[in-house]
Amino acid sequence: MAHIYDRVALIGLGLIASSMFWAMKRKGLAGEVTGFARSAETRHIAREIGLCDVVYDDIREAVRGADLVVLCVPVGAMGPVMAQIADVLAPGATVTDVGSVKKDVIEKIIPHLPEGVHFIAGHPLAGTEHSGPRAGFAELFDNRWCLLVPVAGSDPAAIARLRSFWEGIGSNVEEMDADHHDLVVAVTSHAPHLIAYTMVGVADDLSRVTDGEVIKYSAGGFRDFTRIAASDPTMWRDVFLTNKEATLEILGRFTEELFALQRAIRQGDGDHLFDYFTRTRAIRRGIIEAGQDTDAADFGRGVGRKP
Amino acid sequence: MAHIYDRVALIGLGLIASSMFWAMKRKGLAGEVTGFARSAETRHIAREIGLCDVVYDDIREAVRGADLVVLCVPVGAMGPVMAQIADVLAPGATVTDVGSVKKDVIEKIIPHLPEGVHFIAGHPLAGTEHSGPRAGFAELFDNRWCLLVPVAGSDPAAIARLRSFWEGIGSNVEEMDADHHDLVVAVTSHAPHLIAYTMVGVADDLSRVTDGEVIKYSAGGFRDFTRIAASDPTMWRDVFLTNKEATLEILGRFTEELFALQRAIRQGDGDHLFDYFTRTRAIRRGIIEAGQDTDAADFGRGVGRKP
Question: DSSP E strands: which ranges in B38-125?
Fold first, then answer.
């Protein structure tokens, strides 16, 4: 495949950036890939495992001359990072990001955007519970969605090029506006994460049931929650602080619905419960048919194999 | 392996009974296994796939002469089923069950228990989102826990024999009392299921985000909830109706904690969020170390493979 960009700079070298790197290499999407991470340890690991063609100790050196700069830092760091690199961005370059929130990130980045540099916000909907430079793998984005959120005045040619890039990485690409994006991910990602964190916290808190019991007897459903509650704390703190409105709206709807189900339990209204539990099966079926999850029982997690 | 029971009767032929059958055959734990299901269609499928040595159309024939009778019906059906079979139970036989709630089941079964028949309540902590006679497989219980809940006056020899049986099936076995059991599973299974059902219902309800979007963009966390929200509606209706107190207690604690996190989000208290999200990671680690889940990223669900 011909290069889509000559020089791509990855800023922040965690799960997403490292997976992007291996996916770019798999298809030859970039001439050269440079990288920068704030932590010296992360840069050291990146050099050790060959993550990026060159890893720079100076963020401005990493960005210099790049025709694509991908910001892969926590949402709260996007604005400060953009301020640091703005004046070394090459004219005609595209800046994008992979943050889970779009309205706040756009607001923080636009004020620093130099004339002649394109900014197109992005969000690949893919991840695992592992983080850091060693966590990446080339297939992470295959058949997953990447949402692009162009800002007012985004250049159509720059958008088309970034779309080809993400398609080359393995994703399906869709465009939407920032408000809608933030609401969609509040439902499909942010609220579920907060709920999972909460449930795991409650279990950990309950003195009449020990942690040992919670762990031993987790196969009844609880362990599915712990996977997503093991995600990176810094990333998720920033997500909730910056997608406040949409997340609180969905949590409000969730609490309302939970109260209605609690009332049905208290009143012994079996029909209400049965109907509710029947309806939710259809969504699962849709996800399997759309190829967004495995239909292997129990995620095919290797039920029962001795560790 | 020598038979532990000469004749085992499985009443109700869904995921659990069918998995028990294949696990018994794998190790030769029973001389003969009989089966009964209320639905003619289920009995037909069972005969077709060789599930049970004999499938009876009459529940009393299935039970006659069995030295172990395993009730694998929804919790709400345990009492009525026991009433139907009580007078054909052989003296010295053991009756057990696999229901997810223990206090209510014991209360419903004991009044029908004939003199000379042992009842030991049981609960294998294993399952998948699939149900019915075709869903079973021999490995379901391997390295999972089975909780036995002896009742007042349970015969120690009968308990020891049932324990060997479950160990032969592949489980680790622990004994506890009914109240503690019902609280432990409220935390590790019942509350998580209700929460997952609720979240999936909310997503399905939200007119500003379509079902299509919920399905397409589910890889950000939501799909993990849909797996457990696809579980059998009848089973789960009965669980919530019969483990009402413990479930409502845990849901109350959950809501309290969720409100505290919502307040932290509203007030922008990043430290509170960060600390909370850090604490929950340890539980995940414990579950992996205890061999109760896979440490493969994303459950090893084959991230990104095209369907």
Answer: 54-55, 68-71, 94-97, 118-124
The more confidently predicted of residues A80 and B232 is: A80
Q: B10 with B22: CB under 8 angstroms?
A: no
- In A78-151, where do the E strands start and end? 94-97, 118-124, 145-150
Instruction: Name, in order, each residue with C-beta under 8 angstroms of B112's C-beta and a sequence gap of 6 or more.
Output: B79, B82, B83, B86
CA B51/CA B74 separation, integer angstroms: 19
- Alpha helices in A206-269, H assignment, sequence order: 211-216, 222-228, 233-242, 244-267
Contacts of A252 (CB under 8 A, 6+ apart): none
Return the closest-CA partner of residue A46 out of A11, A88, A97, A7. Answer: A11
- What count of other Cβ atoms lies within 10 Å of the Cβ of residue B153? 7
Beta strands A118-124; A145-150: pairing state: antiparallel
Name residues 251-290 of chain B within 8 A of A (Cβ): 251, 253-255, 257-258, 261-262, 265-266, 268, 270, 273-274, 276-287, 290
Name which of A47-61, A278-292, B91-105, B226-240 the model is least confident about. Answer: A278-292
Q: What is the pLDDT of residues A90-119, one digit of tens each?
A: 999 999 999 999 999 999 999 999 999 999
**What global pTM score does this model have?**
0.90
B46, B50, B52, B56 alpha-carbon torsion, rounded to 10° = 50
- Which residues on chain B are in Cβ contact (under 8 Å) with A250? 202, 206
Q: Which of B126, B240, B306 sits opposite A273 (nearest CB)?
A: B240
pLDDT of residue B295: 77
Q: How many residues does chain A have?
A: 307
In angstroms, the Cα distances linking A201 to A198, A229, B73, B256, B282 are: 5, 9, 33, 11, 10
Locate A118 and state its tokens: 């394109």
DSSP string, B192-260: HHHHHHHHHHHHHH-TTS-HHHHHHTGGGTHHHHHHHTTS-HHHHHHHHHHSHHHHHHHHHHHHHHHHH
What's the gap in Å between the CA of A191 and the closest CA on chain B?
A: 8
* Domains defined for chain A, CATH in brackets: 5-176 (3.40.50.720), 180-294 (1.10.3660.10)
Copy the structure tokens of residue A174: 């869709």
What amino acid is encoded at B215 in this protein? Answer: I
Q: What is the mean pLDDT of chain B?
A: 93
Q: How is residue A248 written in tokens?
A: 């609180």
Best residue of A100, A169, A292, A306 to probe chain B, by most B CBs closer than 10 Å: A292
Q: Which amino acid is at A139?
A: E
Whether the CB of A305 is below 8 Å from some CB of chain B: the reply is yes
Q: Which chain B residue has the Cα nearest residue A136?
A: B297
Q: What is the pLDDT of residues B168-225, one digit of tens each?
A: 999 999 999 999 999 999 999 999 999 999 999 999 888 888 888 999 998 888 988 8
Residue for token digits 């479930």? B247
Of B197, B202, B286, the CB nearest to A215: B286
Residue indicated by tokens 């791509």? A8
Give this complex's ipTM.
Answer: 0.90
